[in-house]
Design brief:
Layout (H helix, E strand, L loop, with lengths): L2 H11 L2 H9 L5 E2 H8 L3 H13 L3 E6 L2 E6 L3 H18 L2
Antiparallel strand pairs: 1-3, 2-3
Length: 95
């Protein structure tokens, strides 16, 4: 993998809101209003993060009536987040 792309992935994962969104979307689709309530992120801010993740091809969405329901397009990110959470918990339990 090229270092620029890897650096961009770390930049994405360095933002707590992006990580919250990715965790909330693990294995399921959710509409913006559901994510807004679940994550306690204002709709305008949430939309910016969703668009950022979509533009990087991590997320995609389906239109359901007048709602956009997002899901993780690249399933490798589900595995990556699960791995990082597991490692983080292991490191913290050793302290």
């Amino acid at each position: 993998m090229d270092s620029k792309k890897l650096a961009k992935i770390f930049k994405i994962l360095s933002k707590p809101s992006n990580v919250k969104i990715l965790r909330a979307l693990q294995g399921c689709k959710k509409c913006v209003t559901s994510l807004e309530l679940e994550l306690n992120i204002k709709q305008s801010n949430l939309s910016q993060h969703l668009n950022y993740l979509k533009n990087f091809n991590i997320l995609d969405y389906e239109r359901k009536g007048n709602k956009n329901c997002y899901y993780i397009k690249d399933k490798r990110y589900i595995k990556l987040i699960a791995y990082l959470i597991k490692k983080f918990e292991e490191v913290n339990s050793e302290k």
